[in-house]
Specification:
CATH class: Alpha Beta
CATH topology: Rossmann fold
CATH architecture: 3-Layer(aba) Sandwich
Order of helices and strands: EHEHEHEHEHEEHE
Shape: globular
CATH superfamily: Vaccinia Virus protein VP39
Number of helices: 6
Largest sheet: 8 strands, mixed
Oligomer: single chain
Length: about 200
C-alpha cells in the first residue's frame, strides 16, 4: 500500500473559476490583501495582529508551510481573517475575482541565480498582469528584495506591464509602510544590510 504524500491534506482553494477572497474567510473584514509566497508566515501573522480589520490570504507553493502556517493562524485566533493555501500563484491568481484585493505583497522572491533557473522566477510580466487584474484601482503592489540587481529587474518588469504607477515618493521607497516584517527583512535590517522596496499603485483601467 502506497504511503500518503507528506502534507497531502494541505489546505487548497475551493473549486470554481472565480473566487471571491472574502468567501475564503470566516470573519467580516474591511480590506482584503494577498501575500504571494508567505513561507513561514511571520509577515502574515504580524500584519493581521497590527491591522485588526484586514483580511489576508497567502498562496504558498510548498504544502508543508501552507499547512503549518494555516494551522498557526488558526491556533492564534487569526484563522477567521487569514488563510494560507497550498497553491502556485501562477495558476491560482487567474481564479481570483477582478478588483477584489487592496494590496499584494511579494517579499524576497526568486532565490535562483543560474540561467537555467530563470524559468522559475516569481516576478514575471504574466504574473503581474494577473496581480493588476485582482487589485482594485489604486490598490498597492509591494515588492521587497535584498539584491540590487533584482530590484532593478523587478522595476523594469512592473513598469513594462503598463498597469501600475509609482506612488507619490516614486517606485522605490525607503521604509516598509505596512507595520509588519518578514524574517528576512528583519535580519537584513538588524545586520545593517540594504533592502530594496518597490511600492506601486494599480492604475485606473
Amino acid at each position: 500500500m502506497a504511503r500518503p504524500k507528506p502534507y497531502a491534506d494541505a489546505p487548497r482553494l475551493p473549486e470554481g473559476d472565480r473566487l471571491d477572497p472574502r468567501e475564503l474567510l470566516g470573519d467580516a473584514v474591511g480590506s482584503m490583501e494577498l501575500e504571494i509566497g508567505p513561507g513561514r508566515g511571520w509577515f502574515m501573522l504580524e500584519r493581521l495582529e497590527v491591522e485588526p480589520t484586514v483580511g489576508l490570504i497567502g498562496l504558498e507553493i510548498r504544502r508543508k508551510w501552507a499547512s503549518i502556517v494555516d494551522e498557526r493562524l488558526r491556533r492564534r485566533g487569526l484563522g477567521g481573517r487569514g488563510r494560507v493555501f497550498a497553491e502556485d500563484a501562477r495558476w491560482a491568481l487567474p481564479r481570483i475575482a477582478d478588483a477584489s484585493l487592496t494590496v499584494a505583497y511579494v517579499h524576497f522572491p526568486d532565490p535562483w541565480w543560474k540561467k537555467r533557473h530563470l524559468k522559475r522566477l516569481v516576478i514575471t510580466e504574466e504574473l503581474l498582469i494577473e496581480v493588476a487584474r485582482v487589485l482594485k484601482p489604486g490598490g498597492e503592489l509591494f515588492v521587497q528584495t535584498d539584491v540590487a540587481e533584482r530590484a532593478g529587474m523587478y522595476q523594469r518588469v512592473v513598469d513594462g506591464t503598463g498597469r501600475f504607477e509609482p506612488g507619490p515618493q516614486g517606485a522605490q521607497v525607503a521604509q516598509n509602510p505596512f507595520g509588519a516584517r518578514s524574517p528576512r527583512e528583519r535580519r537584513a535590517t538588524e545586520d545593517g544590510l540594504p533592502v530594496y522596496r518597490l511600492l506601486y499603485r494599480r492604475s485606473a483601467p
